[in-house]
């Protein structure tokens, strides 16, 4: 029982980064921008939050957890938004190919994260010495009363606020896209920017805002990983391939953020299942690690057999828009 | 005898430096340290504990031998493929007199380079092929880190005793969890030493080992530690390179013994100490040998005696009372040679002693060269660890 | 004081690369009038209108709205000035409902209250007498329904100036009549309307004045009352042209294609062709008429081997007397039997041609496989492209221009030219003159007649009944996928055809609604 | 800003260029490169506080400063090139094959298997032929899987191929468990180190002679195939519109499957070039992200193989160079990724100014 509980709890913990990434990417893709730079942006968001907290704690002799939280949150949002801005300027204003820019941004972002991770590690006095305990404690603070309830408390209330924020964000985005005017306008841009343009929607402004806010949301996934999951430290490439899984989840969630919630938990669970599965040897463990990917493929095949209009990617995804182009 | 006359064609740009062979040594004047060049390739960088420890060792060497910064060329993130060969050759061509490599998978590529650059010395950490390769300029090195792991085990055992005394756990519940990288002799040897150290003070202790199948994977280490804790581990230790396990232990408020680096910043409330390696003594020894023109041992593995291993400062707020004294006592015994970590009278395998098994079981015959005088001679035949036996009290998952 | 014009353009110029699409154009539209704009394909009508709707921005010139000089940088600016445009190619989002499309980009309460919006739209639908379900998705709509959505979209925005770019190209005569009624109502309400159409009878019937463009230049504006089809054509083309189709008698008609009880179903299981049978003969033109979505497209595609046939068979009778069953064959298999069926599909750039490829590469689309060589022969198609450009007077910078860059009429000439060049025994054309100017249309009619005289069996799906009656030998009328009659074109009337098209139209709606294009 | 300034606000119009002379286009590209180098220099100077000229000399020195470095640069550029070439047919068909990593890994794994199991049973030339065939087949299979599902169920290939990368990665790890030496070490080590069986042999005295021949031959073949063959034409048509393809009598399913088989096979072959022609070992990092970088190369070259040679050389040159300066100035090697990123941003950004021009004009009147 307690093992199952630990498993579920950690499955959720593993999923949250991916959920942020997927939510951000959905918002971005709804504007017709396929941002393959999300994996890099998540690194950028993570390291920026960590650096801000690190320097804050270093400069202030007696750091305050809440101030650290605000500073690192802002830094993370800003830097990942900056990643989104680079992407936007190149693909929206300069109409560069989205794949190239995205992949280059991922290279850039991962390098950015690892480079600055290494730099502050040096400043901190060596590996494993980066620690922003005070700030991290704010990220990891749980509701004292609720989290003590047996089982339910552990399963539902034992997480820091970013976990709940990720879910709220996904739900809010779903509402935004479905029930608001701006959401409708945004969706129409992703479908057909020339139609949206003719309807008087400011296409590039929406694309910019959606891409940049999408990047900021995705960056929170990196921040979550660094602050809540790792408790405020860094290792190179520690974030791994979660950014790619986030992009995968977008397709699996059929571009609906609420679907990404359960999808991310599923991913998270499959990701760590091999640790909990009894009776595996080293070779079979490696096969077990294939599960998240194989399950994704299987789900994908099954969903693709039902080709509903509504389940398709935004029709203009990946294409630059120029009003005077035929 | 070394092939000193057999200069590689590419070594022409080598400054008039010693080629690090015995025969040349007399001809080299004192103070030639100014002309020496040292190259090293690392699997990772300063962000990863294992490489960071090597970098520290190189720094110690450079300081103690008075090398300037442009006499040491470091290359980080060198993979275990052709890029290792490219990097090693590049260092040799840049005029390095000695080249080090710090990852197991570099060894094959280093041997390749050693065959081509016969007047350059090559030293490889954790490898095992130097002696058997027959190349006079190829060397292996490692440390007797099992000694420091033993000592850190003692710290852990004392903590468990403390918890038993305080009634937090029963003696039967004294189970440790160990996050291992691979089921590899280096790891097995390490956790056995750690377990024996704990057992030497807490006889009822047991240990569960789970592998991450990676040398450095923060998430996997974190998750494996959580799983071990959920499965009843009351104390965590690790042989993997990141802070993943201490993070998990700190969360679960479970005491933890780290590896490579001091974990008190990551786990201020639970970190006890870490088993660490000082690579400085070897690097100093090897480079000094090149300067002096003396031979470098084909295999080198030293422990407490040479200051090559240690434990990081004990976190007094977490450790049991009296730990420091006990540690000092054990360390002294190790230095004096009166205490042997793999004393065969302290453990059994499937209920039998190691000597009995070697005599009776063909699978264990290969250890016959290692076992004599009542203990297992770890890292003595070759520098890399050889103890690959799961002893009673330890379970692998 | 004289009332200002609703729109006034002065010396407006617009270039696309080397092409001068509009060259110093002057134009004025009075309040409360309907102005037609006429011009050959590529004469710059759409471009000019797009500058009013904010899609393009003029290089030079001034725009006055209600007497005030304005700068229109975006569609938003254009809306703000009360200009609403219905584009030549629908500007609708397929996966959204009609209502969502209508409110797209409009300001208002952030939270969408669809109930209220529906009510408003339904009111508008009621006022003007449209037939539309606002919660229907666009992909489920017929062409005319989409057109309706476009019009309501503009009305909902309260536009005073309405621009319609070839709105009737895809409508049936009945639908066109309804649209014109709406437009007349709007004129009565004081709105100014610009309409672009290639159909002269519509121009004469509806508008107050006509402006003519030719090759990007402004030619002149005349009062419709004083104009005739001939005079307008002369203005457009720049010389006298005869607007007669000289129909010859069929020569030795022989059975070429026989369709026997063909039934086809859509994915949703609706019968789009229902027990359809007919024969097409060599040396004659068989017209196919029907309201949109009655199965015309599928009829041709079934013969061409592009749709799945549920039951029935199609036979091909070769000139040498042999017979082949070609139902259930893919286009490649049919071609392997050396049967040359040429087909000009309705969707030119989405099916008939590859937009991003140049003319030359498009020439070999259906013939590239000829010969056993692994590599392509590019010389033949290039020569063919040059020939077609010459013979059909295709306006293009060269044979290496991507066809996407050509105007609609020229695209069609390229497509028809290629299909005829294959020396077919059967030539199928769907809406061959849709969007084409008068001159080009007659070029195409003449080409079809030439083919007929050569002994080709021509099957022509069309929407303009007058033209079908003048062009064809026999006319097959489809009604909900069923043949409701095959009549002699020389003896029939528009009224008779109209009756056959609409009689007992049960289930017709369903199939019409399924049409997505 | 003063009120005056607001009224004179510049109003930028973007319009398509008529056509641009090759000279001018290259001028713009070089300006882009120059600008990127300046920005990179600024970044580097900010970090290491070194004279940028010396830094760039370091880059040149690192990439081609010694014979060995020169050949490493050539070898890496060739590897990148063949992967980009392999991706071309798929992308031309608008099939988003981001699974080159997996296809390379599968090719590499099979190559390693051939070297391990057949090293002693056949002469080297035969073994190499077997390796070429087997690795191509492995990549082919890895390309075939998503293609079949794309063709029959229209399954999203982006996600499918991405996931297959990870599956391939796990297959490699799985194989390593059996091939590792010694047990538990998780490294396979140099395969056939003593016999060099299955290794590319020297040609014309060049260690990487065979790499050059194979890669350039494949590049030429793919170029001809795409540009002048009937199948290449079919690929272009399918990529443009499947409806048109069907109308033209093209069997769309067949083309999708065939093209992905070719694309996968070339990427699989690239795996053998990495394993047999360079590393002589197999690990999860055998592909090392090249499958993604190659996508950048292919797109930046607009699928023109000639341009691909240039682009891959340039990228590898800068990468090797930045690794050198990282070592020289004690920089973290990750700086090289940052530099590569910036370079690509500028290069691809400069393309805009080749296709479009900007008109600056004063905004004269406001819309009321
Ligand atoms: N996808 C989006 N997410 C969040 N905010 C958005 C989004 N799209 C637009 N906004 C913001 O909402 C505001 C209104 O946008 P909208 O496009 O409706 O402009 P507007 O105010 O109507 O137009 P204008 O300022 O041109 O007259 C803008 O400030 C814009 O930044
Ligand atoms: N976006 C564009 N890019 C390049 N050229 C264009 C573009 N739009 C129009 N043109 C060119 O400008 C000229 C005028 O085109 P336009 O579409 O205005 O013609 P039109 O009179 O509307 O023709 P049609 O009757 O076929 O609709 C044509 O030569 C066309 O090829
Ligand atoms: Mg037009
Ligand atoms: Mg047109």
Automatic annotation (TrEMBL), chain A:
TM spans, by residue?
A: none
Q: Does the keyword Ribonucleoprotein apply?
A: no
Write out the GO MF terms. Answer: transmembrane transporter activity
Cell membrane in keyword set: yes
One GO cellular component assignment for this chain's record is: plasma membrane
Q: How does it sit in the membrane?
A: Multi-pass membrane protein
What keywords tag this UniProt record? Answer: Cell membrane, Membrane, Transmembrane, Transmembrane helix
Provide the protein's localization.
Cell membrane
Q: Name one Pfam family in it.
A: BPD_transp_2
Give the protein name, as stated in the record: ABC transporter permease
Instruction: Tell me which species this is from.
Output: Anaerocolumna cellulosilytica
UniProtKB/TrEMBL annotation, chain C:
Is NADP found in the keyword set? no
Give GO terms: molecular function aspect only. Answer: ATP binding; ATP hydrolysis activity
Q: Where in the cell is it found?
A: Cell membrane
Which SUPFAM superfamilies is this protein grouped with?
P-loop containing nucleoside triphosphate hydrolases
Could you tell me the membrane topology recorded for this protein?
Answer: Peripheral membrane protein
Name the CDD domains on file: ABC_Carb_Monos_I (cd03216), ABC_Carb_Monos_II (cd03215)
Q: From the record, give the transmembrane residue ranges.
A: none
PANTHER family according to UniProt: CARBOHYDRATE TRANSPORT ATP-BINDING PROTEIN MG119-RELATED (PTHR43790), GUANOSINE IMPORT ATP-BINDING PROTEIN NUPO (PTHR43790:SF4)
Q: What is this protein called?
A: Sugar ABC transporter ATP-binding protein
Say which species the protein is native to: Anaerocolumna cellulosilytica
TrEMBL record, chain D:
Q: Where in the cell is it found?
A: Cell membrane
* Membrane topology summary: Multi-pass membrane protein
InterPro entries to which the protein is assigned, alphabetical: ABC_transp_permease (IPR001851)
Q: Which residue spans adopt a coiled-coil conformation according to this UniProt entry?
A: none
Q: Which UniProt keywords apply?
A: Cell membrane, Membrane, Transmembrane, Transmembrane helix
What do the Gene Ontology cellular component annotations say?
Answer: plasma membrane
Q: Name one GO molecular function term.
A: transmembrane transporter activity
Which named protein is this?
A: ABC transporter permease
User: What species is given as this protein's source?
Assistant: Anaerocolumna cellulosilytica
